[in-house]
């Protein structure tokens, strides 16, 4: 069977309007005169209007859809509309006004900073993840993956395995997706850390580091499903994604996982030159942080969204999703007062 391959779509998927929990309940209680206001709205008080229009990286899809959005709506009464794609693709769509979110959530601050100063002037880092290698438990290499994951075989063997002829690897486009770049940084760090041959990275990638035409490239929105369908032996993944989606995975040591803020200087030794909108730029490795900002003029719903993310209840949801939490860090200036008040709490 021919291996199917998809390049990342230049468009995000259509925005989805999520009903509030109260509205869902009202479907079954229409005959009883149920109100569509959120259950968090006190009796006699008008329900909030407006919605948080959130553009976010695909790696956050499970957490947002299953946990965060319902909790935010229940707590504030605001609805959500969302766009989901790689953070780089979303930034490009925002820049050309093809989508108009009022909240942008990405892995790393780079894609947010690409929109400064026209759309935003700040980002807040509040949580982190790490890169991992997810694998197909029915792959012909499954026993070797399991042995490496359990520590029975050395981690070094993973990289010689991935460069075998015919090995089916999936990853995302490093030119537009932070995960795609993080996977390459990880390989570069591993090559040095394990003293692997100098051509290890290019052998695993099957060609130049930043090629978007590689047969290994898939959209971030389809990569996990492609692995689960059995079309791949292994793929890049954030460890939080792998856990949320119950994928088999190999956790990597801190020296190469991009998951330890204390190792930022070491991660910065990895780099890649990418092309975006015809312009080349060099990106360097850094800890994988979750960053959030407002796009355009703050609204009640968008401000409430970011405030809820940074609240104890919101951070608990990220912890539940497997993200590492740390003291929020503000990059830039101009954060609305309501949000800075939450930072000080």
Would you write up a description of this structure?
There is one protein chain. This protein has 345 residues and is an alpha+beta fold. It has two domains: 131 residues, Periplasmic binding protein-like II (D-Maltodextrin-Binding Protein, domain 2, 3-Layer(aba) Sandwich), CATH 3.40.190.10; 154 residues, D-Maltodextrin-Binding Protein, domain 2. Helix content is 36%, strand content 21%. A seven-stranded mixed sheet has the order 1-3-2-4-12-5-13. Helix 13 crosses helix 14. The chain is globular, with a radius of gyration of 21 Å. It starts with 15 loop residues before the first strand and ends with a helix.
Record the SSE blueprint.
Layout: E1 16-18, H1 21-28, E2 51-57, H2 61-76, E3 79-85, H3 87-95, E4 103-107, H4 110-113, E5 122-128, E6 131-135, H5 142-150, H6 156-162, E7 169-170, H7 178-193, H8 200-205, H9 220-228, E8 234-238, H10 239-244, E9 248-250, H11 254-257, H12 264-267, E10 271-276, E11 279-284, E12 289-294, H13 300-310, H14 312-320, E13 324-332, H15 337-343
Helix pairs in contact: 13-14, 13-15
User: Which strand order spans the largest sheet, edge to edge or round the barrel?
Assistant: 1-3-2-4-12-5-13
Helix content: 25-40%
Proportion of strand residues: 15-25%
The CATH superfamily of the largest domain bears the name: Periplasmic binding protein-like II
Instruction: Identify the CATH class of the largest domain.
Output: Alpha Beta
CA-to-CA gap between the ends? 56 Å
Number of helices: 15
Count all strands and give the number: 13
